[in-house]
Write a structure and sequence with these properties.
The complex is a heterodimer. By secondary structure, chain A is mostly helical. Chain A is 70% helix and 0% strand. Chain B has a two-stranded antiparallel sheet with strand order 1-2. In chain B, helix 1 packs across helix 5, helix 3 packs parallel to helix 10 and helix 5 runs antiparallel to helix 6. Classes of the chains: A mainly alpha, B mainly alpha.
């Protein structure tokens, strides 16, 4: 089962134009990880509103008298889901499965996905953005920290890759 | 003149609809590139498939060159575009951890969304992890707050730190991208699977690279910083004229709802 996807240079150029359009219309770039922080905030706010209000970090998403989910990036992330769904649908790539290498079990892969997600969620908050909101957007507008951040992502990933080869190869 | 939202062309409610539209294009492109599949994404770290780097670098270069030309033509006021501030230490550490999370979990935040909607359970679990990770960060915020705001350098560009004008930086980035493409394709051809690597005509690639470098060279000669500086200096003298132009934008420069929207999480 070998899939050849679209040409990465073409996709990259189109993505650059989308990002440019975003800057031109909104004066800001793409992003998504803050949506997950907002979902976390909404969840905590629902269960323990006093605790959420007392925490300085949750509090930044709570003000303004509207739900923490009523935010620009949340709508962008919803849109991304819709766009991804459409693309997967037209290429018949919608299929319930767990992506993993041939040498790892489903359970182990899912635990690693959870752990990797936790690390990414934490890191994205620490660095004020993820691969799209910080690396892609920031590098496109030549922000200094974003360039450093992007190279650190690659450094971190290449440093870890050897130890996880059983997960993917 | 852009950015349209900051000049009051539309309000918060419309901006949310626009967010949905931009998101659809974003997600669509990511899935097209195969970024809903963790093995395709992580193949870059085993030197087999550099699609991640190609997509990212191309997007960055196109956007960067586009922004500078827009600014030269007077289509966008770059000083009104939100520039991500630099907090160098948390960005270095955060980048490193995010990279580890990428290899361990198989995704980065946006690609996990694309993965989950196409039925990948690992993508969905990754999202659950991210929500937990964000909550852990918030719970630990009193402890990490000091580190979180350390190394603040303000909203600085590469051109400010390296003290070179942004046209020259653009040229250097274009050259770097072309060299990187050439290099990773060599590596791919050695380690990758020729059946899944993208086919592409050598001639088209050479032309595209030449156009890219030529655009960079033009920017280096034009020097967008100088033109932007001239433009900001000029309107101050001819106040009445800018007033006439602003008829297009009925509202004042700042949108009404700015207080509720533009907060510190403008990053991802």
């Amino acid at each position: 089962m070998k899939t050849r996807y679209a040409n990465p240079y073409l996709i990259g150029a189109l993505l650059g134009l989308v990002l440019l359009f975003c800057f031109y219309t909104m004066g800001r770039g793409l992003g998504s990880s803050a949506s997950f922080a907002r979902i976390a905030t909404a969840g905590v706010d629902l269960v323990a509103p006093a605790h959420a209000a007392a925490n300085k970090y949750y509090a930044r998403y709570l003000g303004g008298g509207r739900s923490p989910l009523m935010a620009w990036l949340v709508f962008l992330t919803l849109g991304a889901g819709l766009g991804g769904l459409f693309s997967a649908f037209i290429s018949s790539r919608i299929k319930g499965e767990v992506i993993r290498g041939p040498r790892i079990g489903v359970g182990a892969r899912l635990w690693l996905a959870l752990f990797g997600g936790i690390l990414s969620g934490f890191a994205a908050r620490l660095a004020r953005g993820c691969t799209s909101g910080q690396a892609l957007t920031g590098a496109g507008e030549m922000a200094f920290g974003s360039w450093v951040f992007m190279f650190c992502i690659f450094a971190g990933a290449y440093a870890t890759a050897y130890f996880l080869r059983r997960e993917w190869l | 003149m852009g950015p349209l939202y900051k000049f009051g062309w539309f309000d918060f409610a419309y901006s949310l609809q626009l967010a949905g539209l931009i998101g659809v294009m974003f997600g669509f492109l990511l899935e097209r590139a195969g970024f809903g599949n963790a093995r395709k994404l992580t193949a870059i770290f085993y030197l087999r498939d550099f699609a991640v780097l190609k997509v990212m670098f191309t997007a960055i270069v196109v956007c960067m060159v586009g922004l500078l030309f827009f600014s030269v033509f007077g289509w966008i006021d770059l000083s009104k575009v939100y520039l991500l501030p630099t907090y160098i230490w948390p960005q270095i550490v955060g980048g490193f951890i995010l990279g580890m999370g990428f290899v361990i979990g198989g995704y980065c935040p946006t690609t996990s969304v694309v993965s989950a909607v196409s039925g990948k359970l690992d993508g969905l679990i990754f999202i659950v992890g991210m929500i937990l990770g964000s909550a852990i960060f918030a719970e630990l915020f009193p402890i990490v707050e000091k580190f979180y705001s350390s190394g603040s350098m303000g909203a600085v560009r590469l051109s400010d730190v390296l003290k070179i004008n942004s046209g020259v930086i653009a040229l250097l980035v274009c050259l770097m991208a072309v060299v990187a493409y050439w290099f990773v394709e060599k590596v791919e051809n050695r380690f990758g699977d020729p059946e899944t690597l993208p086919a592409g005509s050598r001639k088209v690639k050479m032309w595209a690279a030449a156009v890219l470098v030529a655009l960079g060279l033009m920017l280096a000669i034009i020097n967008p910083d100088r033109i932007a500086a001239k433009k900001t200096a000029a309107p101050a003298e001819k106040k009445p004229k800018t007033g006439a132009v602003q008829k297009v934008a009925p509202k004042p420069a700042e949108p009404e709802s700015s207080g509720a929207v533009i907060i510190e999480d403008e990053g991802c």
